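Render this sequence as a predicted structure.
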Amino acid sequence: MKFINCCLLTTFILGTVVQIGCLSGGAMGAADKLVEAKDYRGAIEVYQSVVDSKPGTTDARKAQLAIGKLYIENMNQPAQGVKAYETIIAEAPESDESAEAHYRLGMHYFRQKDFDAAQTQFDLIVNQFPHLELSHDAHLMLAKSFEEGQKFEQAVEAFDSFANRNPQSDRAAQALLNKARIQRELIKDDDEAKRTLQYTVKKYGRIDGAQSHIEKAKEELTELKAPIPKPENPEDTQIGRALARQQARRERDRPRGVEKSPIIKSDVVLQDSGFGITADEVMRDFGGQTAIAGDEQGSYHDAELMIAGFLYGDENYRDAGALYFDAIARAEAERAKIDPYSYLRLSICYRKLGMHQKAAEVLKKAASKDSKVIEAIISTGRNQYTNEEYEKALETFNSIVGLNRNKDAEIYWFIGKTYQKLGDHKKERDAFEQAVAKNPEDTDALQSLAEVLHYRLNDRKTAAIFQDLVEQKRDSFITMKTLGDVCYKHGEFNKAQIKYKAAARTAKRLLEKSESPAEKKILTHQYNYGTILAALSIFKQGRETDAQTLIDTLAGEYPEHPLLLYAKGEIALLKGDEKVAVDAFKESIEKDPRLDIPVIALGDYYVSKGYNDEAIALWENYLEKDRYNAKVIRRLKPLKANDE
């Protein structure tokens, strides 16, 4: 009887909706009542009537949001719910409802423990919808997603950037406590945790709503036996002192009864900066135009840049960023010259608030207008490096990666040298690898990579290969293959293809001259492997047909070679056909059980899917045949340690 009543109610409501011409307010209310009655299917039909009758409108998008929520939260049909949200995003990507759809998708993925997917959704909201209050909630969820996904360094950065976005909020103090907790408990870095807690007490000690967080910070500092600083007095900041000095000077020099001309403010209409505060609001905090008038009449954007510089020095990146944004826009509108370092600082302000996409856009735009911008930024980074301001140097160099491909190798080399000074040798190696990938002929990068491998990471075998490259010894399979590996690893697939083909040609040339059966077997293996790696590089460039043609040609030369099955597996993985890939790897292993390449590939696949037990069993079984295989041991050791 209850079911019949619900059906009758649904029929009546649908009929009424049609009769009144689908007035969205009435339809939405009717659908809400059906939800209360747990007639979810009926509610969806009513919501869908709004979507169909008012396509492209806010009402239609709100109805789609309701449909998505019902499918996911009430009907256990997540695929349908995700589809509803994605429809909103596709049809109106810049709408508020699109932001809400991204947020709900992020929460769905977070609950499903797909933290990478959740991070993508939350990060997009932070970068593309910073003007919405929802972006602040998304920012915190981004930090939590990083933490749950065990990306602890990124979680620390996200909590820190949230605090920078909300400099006068008790939520900022809470975010910094979370940052300190991760540093202390998960990263195991008490020194950094102390600095974070001390900064929290100093910066937020006078914020009324933050007192409970401040007490917690003090307790933890006591546990860590660290000094507890006094809360900061605004008048003791750089900007406070500068304004006090300026006000005193103006009062001293002002002719009695006469006020100096205020700084000229243009009438440029500006778009939203994304900092959550306008430049006018920031300037009002310092008394407006009268308080910042200089000794001589000047442009308003010059005054903004002056105040922005002080705020930047006090690490108030939100307010500084709002002023830099406003000043640059005004200067550009007036066609006035502006210091390229202002673009860098605006970019850093965005980065400090977690808006890395906007940060990149600022510098890309600036570099396209003025070629000197990148050189100025590199010069800034070098000066910071020389002055031992290594964290600032890293931030500066990273801000311009990718803006000028001709400069990337040099920039990555500086990043590597900076990590060397910081003692982070894995990141040092990665940066030098990036430099080599961008320019495989850069001897400075090759030399630095050889040195970090030899002296700091104790990988002397690989270090010797790069040292050979420094000395122009490039006529061996292993040197060119290793160089190709670095290029492939860092996404330089065209360069990788060239190096792999060079490696294969070297093996082929020696094969044609060799008379030793054992040597011929090794060289045949190298030729096949180098050619297959070149094909995979070509595939990664989007040239699937060319890649397959190269492999087919190789199969014509060596139809029974076991690496052809390995190639089939790798191509299948690139196409997303995991079953074919696994079967091909297993066939390759069966054909030649001593061949480590398919064994490593299959084990790596297992690890990527979380099948650690299968990977351990596979690699332990292989080591029974080749007990000293360094490549397999290097993978197995940490996997077993984590498993224990």
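Summary. The chain has 34 helices and no strands. Confidence is low (pLDDT under 50) at residues 1-23, 254-264, 290-297.
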